[in-house]
Design a protein that fits this description.
CATH topology of the largest domain: Ribosomal Protein S5, domain 2
Number of domains: 2
Strand content: 15-25%
Radius of gyration: 20 Å
Shape: globular
Order of helices and strands: EHEEEHEHHHEEHEHHHHEEHEE
Mean pLDDT: 94
Low-confidence stretches: none
Helix content: 25-40%
Number of strands: 12
Structural class: alpha+beta
Length: 334
């Protein structure tokens, strides 16, 4: 039996420049961090005593004889890609809900690929996990997704991720002091809007608008360099980071009319009035989680103002996708 643990992520700046349609022309970059909220995948060879060959457990339970019968699109695509021959049981658990803007779908994909490698006794690098997850989501499933989530899930950490025109990428950990990183962590607040959505549907409209919104994308790209400068300069107030986060949201929400809603705007404005300096909706838009930057003296007022939402305390993490259990079960269907 294998259990993998793969983190979710918060993307601060550069979201959208990780779409191939953009970075194949201009290059792209994002600043993102993984957090201590995870996707867990339990995977084992299924003993040959059942009247089904594969069992997949998530919000539903599927028992099938053939991979082609699987309804879960990611599981089906990954098992076909892996040319899975043995019967298998897969169980998914998540600390936070899916369709939430925290890269949960990519964490699932990375975690399952990692589990299958481990089950077969193969080692896998972070780069290999990320590349395979990107290929599966974009080329096999055909989702409208960028390339940052898979990389964050595989590598973990607080990173500047650069996308080259030839589809290669570079992961540069942001080497800021532990104190500065802790100060930033303490000033970030994460709330669940209660709205779930299919990010691929929202992303499709963003990708379609890339050509006519080129100026906005350029500004969002430039903000990545500005944010790096802020983080690296110990003499610069982190409040400037919060202000920049708010500016990035204003440009992001202008790209497509699907990114925000009246309800989301109300949540954002309420937090700002209560003392937040800036914030943004995470992921493609339309719902999911929203993050705010606020000094600690204003955080109680913000939580009170948004008491109808679920507040999720979190910390940054650095591990990326990892195996937390590797225990032979004594069965092999071959």
């Amino acid at each position: 039996m294998i259990i993998t643990r793969t983190p979710f992520r918060i993307s601060f700046f550069g979201g959208g420049t990780d779409y191939y349609k953009w970075f194949s022309r201009h290059g792209g970059s994002v600043i993102a961090t993984t957090i201590d909220k995870y996707c867990y995948i339990t995977c084992r060879d299924l003993p040959p005593f059942f009247d089904h060959k594969h069992r997949i457990i998530y919000s539903k339970i599927e028992t099938v004889d053939d991979i082609h019968q699987i309804q879960h699109p990611a599981v089906k695509a990954i098992l076909e890609w892996n040319q899975q021959k043995n019967g298998i049981e897969i169980h998914h658990d998540g600390d936070l809900p899916a369709k939430s803007g925290l890269g949960s779908s990519s964490s699932f994909t990375v975690g399952l690929i990692h589990a299958l490698y481990s089950l077969a006794g193969k080692n896998s690098s972070s780069k290999e996990l990320a590349q395979n997850a990107i290929h599966i989501e974009q080329n096999i499933i055909g989702e409208n997704v960028g390339s940052q989530d898979q990389i964050s899930a595989a590598y973990g950490g607080f990173n500047l991720i650069k996308f080259n025109k030839d589809r290669t990428f570079i992961v540069d950990p942001l080497l800021i002091s532990n104190k500065r990183k802790k100060d930033l962590e303490d000033r970030l607040m994460l709330f669940f809007t209660g709205i779930s959505r299919f990010s691929s549907d929202i992303a499709k409209t963003t990708i379609a608008n890339i050509d006519k919104q080129e100026k906005a994308f350029m500004i969002l790209s430039d903000m990545v360099d500005e944010a790096v400068t802020i983080l690296n300069n110990e003499n610069t107030s982190l409040d400037i980071f919060g202000e920049l986060l708010g500016k990035s949201w204003e440009y992001k929400r202008s790209i497509s009319d699907k990114i925000t809603t009246t309800e989301i705007d109300s949540i954002y404005n309420s937090a700002i009035k209560a003392g937040a300096i800036g914030g943004k909706l995470l992921g493609a838009g339309g719902g999911g989680f929203i993050v705010f930057y606020a000094r600690q003296e204003f955080q109680d007022a913000i939580r009170k103002k948004l008491k109808h939402l679920v507040y999720v305390p979190f910390k940054f993490e650095n591990s990326g996708s990892c195996t937390v259990l590797n225990q032979p079960n004594g069965f092999n269907n071959e």
